[in-house]
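[Meeting: bench + compute handoff]

Bench side (C.D.) handed over the final construct sequence. Compute side (W.E.) agreed to return the predicted structure before the next meeting so the bench team could plan truncations. Sequence as handed over:
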Amino acid sequence: MDLLSNKWIVNLLVCCLFIGVGCNSVEKKIYVHLNYTVPCVRLLNATHQIGCQSHLSGNVGVLHVLESEENVDWVLRSGPNPPYLVILESPLFTRSIMMKLKNGSSRVAGVAVVAPSANPLEGVSPHTTCPNENTGVYTENYDPSLAHCNVTVWNPLGSGLSYEQFDFPIFSLKDDNDTQVIRQCYMDHNRAVNGSTPQYPLCAMQLYSHMSAVTDTATCMRRNDINFSISPEMVCDPLGDYNVWASTRPINNTAKGHKMWESVVIAAARLDSRSFFFEVAPGAESGVSGFVTLLAAAHALRNATQEAPPNRTILYTFFQGETFDYIGSSRMVYDMQNNNFAVDLDNVHSVLEIGQVGLRADSRLWLHSDPVSRKNDSVNAEVRKLIESLQTAAKGLNVSVNEPGFSQPLPPSSFQRFLRARPIPGVVIEDHQSAFTNRFYESMYDNAEYLNISYPPNLTPEEQLVFVTDTAKVATVVARALYIQAGGAESQLEGINADPQIVTRMLYGFLIRSNNSWFQQRIPPDFMSHLSKPTNFYVGVAQQRSELTHLVQYLLANLTGSTNNVASSLQMYSYVWVQGAAPPNSTKREGFCVRSTVRLSKALSPAFDLRDYTSKNYSTWTESRWKSIKGRIFLVASHDLEVVDRVRAARFAKEILITIISVNPDLFKVLFGFSPFLYCVIFLFVHIIGLQSEKAQSPPQRDLPSPTENTVHKLLQTALL
């Protein structure tokens, strides 16, 4: 290689170095990246897909702040610079507006919703009016009159927005500095003044949330299976996690299936929740109120079940994935039916489920039961006993416990999956007589504020942690009722009381700040980095155990287990090392080993084990994978100016190719390993792009001279030598 070629290579490398160093700072000058962006993602089931996505390169639109529903027509019809990326304040994030934007999606590039700092006054629920309508017990075969919420519409505020499919990205933006920058950019560049049309440059936003999966679960799982690459790229994953369970007496978990002489009372609660946006699922009333109540009840029963053990075993079960067609409970029932769980359905005596129990001022609990199974005399008799046990347990606690007083089906509950298998006595405890009292069911507003969890001003986080509120009454009712139902003596009830401070600490930890000293003392040292603020209750995908599952597992072990530094039978007990507290005047924690009966069991829909991706009996929900989730704003030039820039860029690239080939045709081969034929093809491709860009340009501009056809012909001949 001659000296001239070496100089060219050195110069080219120096140019690349300067370009690489400078491009990052240039990008920062052009774009403002958004720090807090939460997308709506794509989910799929046996029949269709729901959720949102962007194009592969992101969706770009001119910003428009929607000020009222009447302003939607401007976006969809008369706005001069479509497509638009619409900014919505939360009161305008309604089904009416979103369906209008969906139907006019050719002029809509995306939507960004500004999350409010306080809950709205009116109820909001993006879920359906009849949750888990097709996977509960109430089918046409069970009782047609009770199917499809014919008797009681449980969630009358449900808009069904979470189950719509949108062909553009929808993000939630935190109302912070980013939002202020967006508003200011819109006011400075996009807002019409005195009816005049805004002039370029205009403020624009780009949202990235391209989803890999399409159509339905069967399609995406098939694509997962036929990927022939060395490192296959999956396009979707089944929703799932792990159920958490424990028993008041140790049960041999190695020997699966029926246990002779064993009778269990299942005490159940669901763990997960959801909202329209990915991983924004506070679930305060819909989920947290129930499972915190059950955790506190389990702790209240620890001493009583050891000192005066009842005849039956109480099985505490915390189900994951219940929001998505009862993933966790259907899996446990399936495992019991197939001798793959510690007990089977023949061992189940009865079920007591704790649902939404975020008590309001009236302190009323309602006891729901199944009218169909109660037509069986033996089932009805046991249900009556369980109701009487609950009423006995509530005496002296200032809590009203009653049946609804009319015939209606069970509300959405895990117990329904047990009834699909066989008639089992059971009761579901709720804070509503018929329709939900929860005005924010499965929405971003079902949070600590809605549960009235508040603290006096000026308290530090640690002072808030120990600030006791009156929230333990329901847990005491549940604990006492479970003890009676398991065969315990009523004379022991006075000593069974939930600890108000523990209930308060759990509510604070799950809804306000999980990274607190009380949680830290009850988890293993290697789990510290997983504590977030606040906890996310979305079930996630089956390949990973969620932070919530870990926390419930460790808390249940601490609340029901005992300190033990000598491991005994692993078949009967589980062991976990927790980091404990630091003594006064010391920073070193004193860890200890906790022995308990806490176990995990798979919460993955049986449909995926059976490879029945169109199942009507089990959940088939999957979550699409994606590459990147991000958003940014910038100033966009007019279309004509963009065409001019593309023409200039194409010409510049063409001139570089011509110059390099003119000096030394071997240069490309040295740098890239291309054959002469390939770089001729590259040259022609760039030349054609330049010609097409020139045709698209209006008016044509000739500020960069082009080589003649003879010059091009000679250069190609040289390249082919």
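W.E. noted at the follow-up: The longest strand covers residues 108-115. C.D. will use this when planning the next construct.
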